[in-house]
């Protein structure tokens, strides 16, 4: 059954991460110093099984490690706590060899038992982890409970074998998610429900101080297993800071990175002033903003109507509303995602053709509908632009501007004919095309309360998606991406969404911050990869 | 006095029960599901149901409210859905900052408001009076967010006299307290002016003047103590309005109080925190009013508590 490292395919799997691991930090980097990062909201939790917002995601990444990791500033996988791994020929067994001598912040050495415990904890329903679903392919997931997962087996103190119930091409990405972080059982037991405030991991930093509502201090982990990092002695997070005030403090030299970015109202001022614009780093992100069209609600059950809406939306104008902070989208996947179909132009903006499609559907006089939108700027303004575009082809859309939780509720319950996703738009959990399908376009998410707000469910496409995700053999990676590209083209054919734009990231940093720009627009660590940035003193 | 206090405390408990019921009910019927927020976007239907069951949110309203009250009776405000931290701990860690800002803010608005009101009453009808009343109009109608940012920009960023937001020393406290003081001073200055003018017209003031007392003695010994009476009752009521203003000022100045906590919890549908902050604020308002009523007879012997 299990073949050890024989086929060329497997050699390839290993070759890639090993080469990728040779990431050379900035040769000019100096150790020492401290930086100040600000946020408006207090940090919800630092428990890797629970934390799932863009604020605590990168913090947790710096406190904990998983078996897999990413090359800083890229979407390329590299081994983390695993020194190497082997995949069986059938793609069902992953054997990870752990690094020796890795210590938790409490001084104890990390072993395979900890990996088993951590995966069991995150999937145990009692933990209430929002990420439990990612581990669905591990054998025994359906019976997950306090006794852990039957598919995770400790071979020896430094070897762990994970058996899957189905091949899963995304499994290594899943093992790089924060949810797969390795935690020490004794620290979790000691802290109980407060583990999120007293985190203990193996990461580059450890939590030194947390004054609720005021500040958190991360201190360098001197025993960190990656040699030479982190560079900084400490990172201070000041919370409760209004983004406009954070910007003033940045100009005053008191803040190094405003975590919430540039406030929309200040964007033009910052970009128009060369002194301030010099502090901005721009990068792509794996995000798509879209309008969902509920295929279960007439008249959006007619594909002509959905296509007409796709052709009626002037995406360039919407991009202008957000000061050009995005590129118009043609398909669900963002351009930097593997599997993106480059030669697909999407539905052209063509009001006359849209009117004709509506007439073909028997709706030459248009109709009235509702557009749900989150009530924070710039989303209501974007909704108004959409409203005007739709009016041009005879559709009268009434805007329902609500709090985020209410929009999510209406979308999930299927009561919203149209939803503008802004403020809740999909940002990838990991850089793989499958991450844009299941919960938001697949049948699994189309049930009551799911995130598939268009309630689109095409079983043939679902089968294709499952087939693609079973192609775990790295030699077939290209074929797999082709299959995913077909899936998304199939989605566009039926037009349950209007993909509107892909937002870009704008991070600001102070003059004293060092390290290549990619670290400041790291696709995985937002806003900054704390492990590799440094200060010029 | 004792009987009065007991009656008022019973009333206060009933008010708090009412507040808890209304808030709990509104959160119950709110078309937003806290379980969705906890479960995240990748959760399966099973995970969602499982979390709902664990939190007891699958139970009917009466059971949920009953459980909450039972916890409350034992001093348990519950745990935050998303942070998993004890709500009592979250509030306790932020309450001192809010109280500090509140006291300093009230002191500022009284000093500013009473000072302006007295000056206007004494200079009644003159240009200075008109200017002061105009100013009070501006402070009452000025948007809190803009005033906060303006003061921050001028005194912290440009002049550098105070830190740009934050918490810790008295220097951090000055700007937010002055902001609250300026915004609240308008009401007090108008109240104080009319109250002072009424008193200055009274017979006993004429008598005092006729006795040949000095002007300052007439004003500060005889007129002021009488004119300030209605203002004391106002402070108790003002605490409620103050709580509203504090949310904005705390957020601009990065002041780690319960206003910030409430704002975050509302966005995340974190019901235990919303309930906790609402109850604590309601408590503050009820206590403020009670205190104002209890103190009134000491200031004005004509008032009897019954």
TrEMBL record, chain A:
Leader sequence residues: 1-20
Record keyword Cytoplasm present: no
Domain Solute-binding protein family, chain residue ranges per copy: 77-447
PANTHER family xrefs: D,D-DIPEPTIDE-BINDING PERIPLASMIC PROTEIN DDPA-RELATED, PERIPLASMIC BINDING COMPONENT OF ABC TRANSPORTER
One GO biological process term: peptide transport
Molecular-function annotations in GO: peptide transmembrane transporter activity
Superkingdom in the source lineage: Bacteria
Protein localization: Periplasm
Gene Ontology CC: one annotated term: outer membrane-bounded periplasmic space
The protein, known as: ABC transporter substrate-binding protein
Keywords: Signal
This protein's record includes keyword tRNA processing: no
Similarity annotation: Belongs to the bacterial solute-binding protein 5 family.
UniProtKB/TrEMBL annotation, chain B:
Assigned protein family: Belongs to the binding-protein-dependent transport system permease family.
Record's keyword annotation contains Endoplasmic reticulum: no
Keyword Transport assigned: yes
Domain called ABC transmembrane type-1: residue spans: 95-296
Location(s) in or outside the cell: Cell membrane
Membrane-related topology note: Multi-pass membrane protein
UniProt-listed CDD domains: TM_PBP2
GO biological process, one term: transmembrane transport
Source taxon at top rank: Bacteria
Name of the protein in its database record: ABC transporter permease
Transmembrane regions listed in the UniProt entry: 12-30, 101-123, 135-157, 169-188, 227-253, 273-296
GO cellular component, one term: plasma membrane
Keywords of this entry: Cell membrane, Membrane, Transmembrane, Transmembrane helix, Transport
Major localisation: membrane
């Amino acid at each position: 059954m299990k073949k050890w490292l024989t086929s060329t395919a497997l050699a390839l799997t290993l070759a890639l991460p090993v080469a990728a691991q040779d990431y050379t930090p900035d040769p000019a980097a100096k150790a020492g110093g401290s930086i100040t990062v600000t946020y408006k909201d207090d940090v919800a939790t630092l428990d890797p099984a629970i934390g799932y917002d863009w604020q605590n995601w990168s913090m947790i990444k710096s406190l904990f490690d998983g078996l897999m990791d990413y090359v800083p500033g890229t979407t390329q996988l590299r081994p983390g706590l695993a020194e190497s791994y082997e995949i069986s020929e059938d793609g069902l067994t992953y054997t990870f060899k752990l690094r020796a001598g890795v210590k938790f912040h409490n001084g104890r050495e990390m072993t395979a038992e900890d990996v088993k415990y951590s995966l069991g904890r995150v999937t145990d329903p009692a933990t209430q982890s929002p990420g439990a679903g990612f581990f669905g392919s591990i054998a025994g997931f359906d019976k997950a409970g306090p006794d852990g997962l039957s598919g995770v087996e400790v071979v020896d103190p430094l070897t762990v074998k994970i058996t899957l119930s189905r091949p899963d091409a995304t499994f290594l990405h899943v093992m790089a998610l924060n949810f797969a972080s390795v935690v020490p059982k004794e620290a979790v037991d000691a802290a109980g429900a407060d583990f999120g405030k007293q985190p203990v991991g193996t990461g580059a930093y450890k939590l030194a101080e947390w004054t609720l509502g005021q500040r958190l201090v991360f201190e360098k982990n001197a025993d960190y297993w990656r040699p030479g990092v982190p560079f900084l002695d400490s990172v201070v997070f000041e919370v409760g800071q209004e983004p406009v005030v954070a910007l003033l403090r940045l100009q005053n030299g008191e803040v190094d990175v405003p975590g919430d970015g540039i406030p929309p109202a200040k964007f033009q001022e910052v970009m128009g002033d060369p002194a301030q614009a010099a502090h901005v780093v721009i990068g792509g992100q794996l995000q798509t903003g879209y309008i969902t069209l509920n295929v279960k609600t007439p008249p959006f059950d007619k594909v002509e109507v959905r296509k007409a809406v796709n052709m009626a939306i002037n995406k360039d104008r919407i991009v202008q509303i957000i000061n050009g902070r995005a590129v118009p989208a043609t398909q669900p996947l963002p351009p930097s995602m593997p599997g993106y179909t480059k030669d697909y132009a999407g539905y052209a903006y063509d009001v006359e053709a849209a009117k004709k499609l509506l007439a073909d559907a028997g709706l030459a006089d248009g109709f009235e509908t509702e557009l749900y939108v989150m009530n924070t700027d710039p989303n209501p303004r974007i909704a108004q632009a959409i409203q005007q575009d739709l009016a041009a082809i005879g559709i009268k859309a009434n805007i329902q501007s609500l709090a985020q939780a209410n929009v999510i509720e209406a979308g999930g319950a299927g009561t919203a004919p149209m939803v503008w996703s802004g403020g809740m738009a999909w940002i990838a959990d990991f850089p793989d095309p499958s991450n844009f399908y299941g919960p938001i376009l697949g049948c699994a998410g189309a049930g009551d309360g799911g995130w598939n707000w268009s309630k689109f469910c095409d079983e043939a496409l679902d089968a294709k998606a499952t087939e693609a995700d079973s192609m775990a053999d790295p030699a077939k990676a290209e074929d797999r991406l082709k299959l995913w590209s077909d899936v998304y083209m199939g989605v566009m054919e039926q037009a349950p969404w209007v993909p509107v734009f892909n937002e870009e990231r704008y991070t600001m940093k102070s003059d004293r911050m060092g390290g290549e720009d990619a670290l400041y627009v790291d696709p995985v660590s937002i806003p900054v990869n704390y492990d590799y940035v440094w200060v010029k003193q | 006095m004792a009987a009065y206090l007991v009656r008022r405390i019973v009333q206060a408990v009933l008010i708090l029960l009412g507040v808890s019921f209304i808030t709990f009910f509104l959160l119950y019927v709110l078309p937003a599901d806290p379980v969705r927020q906890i479960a995240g976007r990748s959760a399966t239907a099973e995970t969602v149901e499982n979390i709902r069951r664990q939190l007891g949110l699958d139970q009917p309203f009466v059971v949920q409210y009953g459980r909450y009250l039972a916890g409350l009776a034992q001093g348990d405000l519950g745990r935050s859905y998303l942070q998993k931290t004890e709500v009592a701990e979250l509030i306790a860690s932020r309450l001192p900052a809010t109280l500090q800002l509140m006291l300093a803010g009230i002191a500022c608005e009284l000093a500013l408001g009473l000072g302006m009101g007295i000056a206007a009453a004494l200079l009644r009808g003159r240009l200075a009076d008109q200017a002061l009343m105009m100013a009070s109009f501006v402070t009452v109608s000025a948007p809190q967010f803009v005033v906060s940012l303006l003061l921050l920009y001028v005194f912290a960023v440009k002049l550098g006299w105070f830190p740009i937001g934050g918490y810790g020393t008295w220097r951090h406290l000055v700007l937010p307290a002055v902001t609250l003081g300026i915004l609240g001073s308008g009401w007090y200055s108008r109240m104080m002016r009319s109250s002072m003018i009424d008193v200055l017209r009274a017979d006993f003031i004429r008598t005092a003047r006729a006795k040949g007392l000095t002007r300052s003695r007439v004003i500060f010994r005889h007129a002021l103590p009488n004119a300030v009476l209605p203002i004391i009752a106002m402070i108790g009521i003002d605490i409620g309005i103050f709580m509203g203003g504090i949310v904005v000022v705390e957020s601009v100045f990065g002041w780690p109080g319960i206003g910030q906590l409430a704002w975050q919890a509302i966005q995340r549908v974190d019901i235990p925190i919303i309930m906790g902050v609402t109850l604590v604020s309601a408590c503050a308002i009820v206590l403020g009013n009670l205190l104002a009523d209890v103190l009134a007879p000491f200031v004005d012997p004509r008032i009897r508590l019954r």
